Amino acid sequence: MSSELSYPKSKVNKVNRLADRGKYDCKTVHEILKASPVVHVSFNPGSLDDYPVILPMIGKLGSFENPSADLSEPLDLYLHGYVSSRIMNVARKAAQGEEEGTTPLKVCVCATKVDGLVLSLTPNSHSMNYRSSVIFGTVELVMDLDEKLYAMKLITDGVLPNRYDDTRVPPDSAEMQSTQILKVTIDHASAKIRTGQPGDYEKDMKRDDLREKTWTGVIPVYQAFGEPQAASYNRVKDVPDYITNYVKEHGEAEKEYALTCIDKEAAGKS
Which SUPFAM superfamilies match (predicted)? Predict the structure, then answer.
């Protein structure tokens, strides 16, 4: 029996369409979130008359209570932003209302990586190789100074490993006051992954005329980094190794994954 930790299936997070592509283990869900430079955070701004809001944000996983926890263990998602931005104001209002019996702010967060454009014989069979994670969680304002600094380091190093300690740290009081950190406790989550080649219908595979005129295959898609460009006021002669190594190694890993995905069996049509 596997001891792998997973998010329980529920009506909230269960993958219905092409259910065999669904994944619920913490490691898979968290790996996709970690690999995504930007996550999209959806929340209700307050009134039912308002439009729902989706914001692109930087979000990074971690555990202040258990800093050594890895991606296969329960983790929180930390988000940061300007203290008076809309989501921060809504979260603050919800937190103040908890004392009066109202519920805290709940969010849905999505992360997606596209690994290939899947080109088939017919429009309906076109697809993409992709990885996506969707989490549903409850928001808490981070007020503890130590946890706030932990989250700021986590987020900075999540953008570029080892960057935080190579800057002016810790942030000064004005910076700390103008920045708000949100901690999302993950209540439900799932991932969905598509890999492989096109999956065409048998009726089309039997048509030689169609197969001879229509190119089919996969165009790999991966994130590539360009040569680091120094700022106009930069005085450091050489780009630090931790930057050049990340640019090279991360770019190569993204390309290798996208190519490997093509050789994997696709889970169904589209």
Answer: FMN-binding split barrel (SSF50475)
CA angle, corner 221, sides to 198 and 23, nearest 5?
65
pLDDT at 132 over 80: yes
Residue 128, pLDDT score? 97
Q: How far apart are CA 155 and CA 167, in angstroms?
A: 14
Q: Which residues have CB under 8 Å from 54's CB, separation 6+?
A: 40, 41, 42
Residue 242 near residue 96 (C-beta atoms within 8 A): no
Residue 220, CB-side half-sphere exposure with 13 Å CA sphere: 15
Other Cβ atoms within 10 Å of 160 Cβ, number: 14
For the entire predicted model, the pTM comes to 0.92
Handedness of CA 166, 170, 173, 177 (dihedral sign): positive
Task: Report whether 181 contacts 142 (CB < 8 A).
Answer: yes
Domains in the chain, CATH or no CATH each: 19-263 (2.30.110.10)
